[in-house]
């Protein structure tokens, strides 16, 4: 049975009726299926079981501590991009040797902390970053394990805002600069060159760009070996895209098979950094219709969730399924834009959806587990949503709804000086 399904006319996530969650925790809230999360993780783990692979969940997709703990306990490593994410990984109990550190702008403080705890590897994105890391490591008397993120210049065919492997974006080291940058890395004190990595984009629903990128990296691996720079691992970055609507991403075992064929006999370890594929379809955003409004040319369902909770539709034209939580008979179907209360025209969760709904109804926004809560904000001074985990018929609050006091805690109104 799929995690999200109707029983009679009520929508359930696993064995929990979603109206009961709205009743207990109010809306908007994110609701996650433990079973779906762990199944997605296990699909990756099992597909790569025959290979020497370290799978580091990219926690930028969803960094809730309870979800991280579930994944760490199931054997996941973590791909982090900030000092904050490093502390989350450690709090979730992730062994430092299962952590890789990505990102273009690592600070001295972040490097220091990562070296102190002893992470697996730094994915370095520029020559200047190599200098900084070498200086920090040398000062600490440590050696930093380094992989260089190479921009393989392949077209991932995904939305331009989430495409990262082409010339002209800020990520990685240009393919043409790769050898020279490796030579420099190998000559700097405090560094040990161990790997090569890439991340060409997110929500890719075909394997060929991944494989083209891998072939380009492996040709560099060979050229480096000829110069005496012998690498230990290749890191392919993020995972395969997911099905939001009608996409048909290839099964991960096909990806594993294609990688295995190319790595056979090379003695290279594999690192992967899937985010969306692990958590994306494990979660829904539960929201209530406040008002129905008929505009001059459109009908609007104004709901209590907004772009501050789920920014994907506004930012990338992301498409998310909208499901009524209670299916009603006898209501007229209308075409709605599902919009939030935020003062922006881009504040929509879905457009042009045929729905039979009334004010007060609950809606579930599908595939909201990845880049939902993690990208949420306080825009319009809206508190951040609660997060709830469903485990069979059990329900657990894993992040409380932010309070107004918590939202305001870092500020005070500066009063003008008396007199
Ligand atoms: N590794 C690196 C270096 C990354 O930059 C990313 C994602 C990942 C791994 C994980 O990629 P995934 O497996 O999730 O595709 N907010 C956008 C997606 C941004 C992805 C950023 N980097 C969205 O909601 O579509």
From TrEMBL:
InterPro entries: Ala_racemase/Decarboxylase_C, DAP_deCOOHase_LysA, De-COase2_C, De-COase2_CS, De-COase2_N, De-COase2_pyr-phos_BS, Orn/DAP/Arg_de-COase, PLP-binding_barrel. It is an enzyme of class 4 (lyase). Substrate binds at residues 276, 312, 316, 344, 371. One of its GO terms (molecular function) is diaminopimelate decarboxylase activity. Pyridoxal 5'-phosphate binds at residues 239, 273-276, 371. GO terms for biological process: lysine biosynthetic process via diaminopimelate. Pfam families: Orn_Arg_deC_N (PF02784), Orn_DAP_Arg_deC (PF00278). The keyword Lyase applies. CDD domains: PLPDE_III_DapDC (cd06828). Keywords: Amino-acid biosynthesis, Decarboxylase, Lyase, Lysine biosynthesis, Pyridoxal phosphate. Its cofactor is pyridoxal 5'-phosphate. Its EC number is 4.1.1.20. The active site is at 343 (proton donor). Residues 37-280 form the Orn/DAP/Arg decarboxylase 2 N-terminal domain. Pathway: Amino-acid biosynthesis; L-lysine biosynthesis via DAP pathway; L-lysine from DL-2,6-diaminopimelate: step 1/1. The modification N6-(pyridoxal phosphate)lysine is found at residue 60. PANTHER family: DIAMINOPIMELATE DECARBOXYLASE, GROUP IV DECARBOXYLASE. Homodimer. Specifically catalyzes the decarboxylation of meso-diaminopimelate (meso-DAP) to L-lysine. Belongs to the Orn/Lys/Arg decarboxylase class-II family. LysA subfamily. This is Diaminopimelate decarboxylase. It comes from Leeia aquatica.
